[in-house]
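Researcher: Quick sanity check before group meeting.
Model: Go ahead. Protein one:
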Amino acid sequence: MKERDPELEKIHAKKMKELTARMKEDNPSGNAPITIGDANFDQAIQKYPLMLIDCWADWCGPCRMVEPTVAELARDYAGRMIVGKLNVDENPQTATRFGVMSIPTLLIMKNGVEVDRVIGAVPKHFIEEKLKKYV
């Protein structure tokens, strides 16, 4: 078995500490989704290395169905990723930019780039299968 490089372990620990501090700035409890909009979207995806973004609308029944799951994922993955909520009616520029044609759409962003997405009200385990590739 390969030994872990102590220098890499030090860098990893430092980066995790920085990420945790940044997450607490926007989300002091660390376990609830943050609100994202057209104005702060780019800043958010650059600031956080891994994000799950829930694209939703008030009138959307399936969005309300998936909302508790999104909140659970925010709690379950606190410290490893940030969960954001983007209201597509209030933020049409970002929704159009990412080609969100159906809601709910969950965007998985890594290092500022969309790496995956989930469309529709799907079970938690389905979303977690996608997330596990990136966490």
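Researcher: Fine. The other one?
Model: Protein two, sequence then structure:
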Amino acid sequence: MADAPTEKTFQFELVSPEKILVSEQAKMVVIPGEEGDFGALAGHAPLLSSIRPGVVTVWSADGATKKIFVAGGFADVTPELCSVLAEEATPVQDLVKPTDEQLKNLEDDLGFAKDDPVKAADIRRQLDIAKAKITALAA
């Protein structure tokens, strides 16, 4: 996916509950879909996908590349527009790496929550986000 994107552009928007992080013309966007990463280009077939924790990479029309960590959400792709509605979104350069102690505490909490499936699912999600942040910072 590191190949040069096409010259055609489309509108890309990345929105979190707090603000609009990106609204610009893009050549290509790679999104961490629930079933795997996928790229969006101008003229893409309509697609709606849930997003797993990971990095959205944007190749802007001006040649700049942006990397934004998302904790989850949804992507809506049409031939002219790609919208990402993120639960949380942070530029990768602003991420704070979870500590080993935080990871251990989450893993311990998961062990204690084995009899409460709702609580266990919430802790598992927090653990997935923490691990995705570590991966994003290592890339």
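Researcher: One line on it for the slide.
Model: The longest strand covers residues 20-33.
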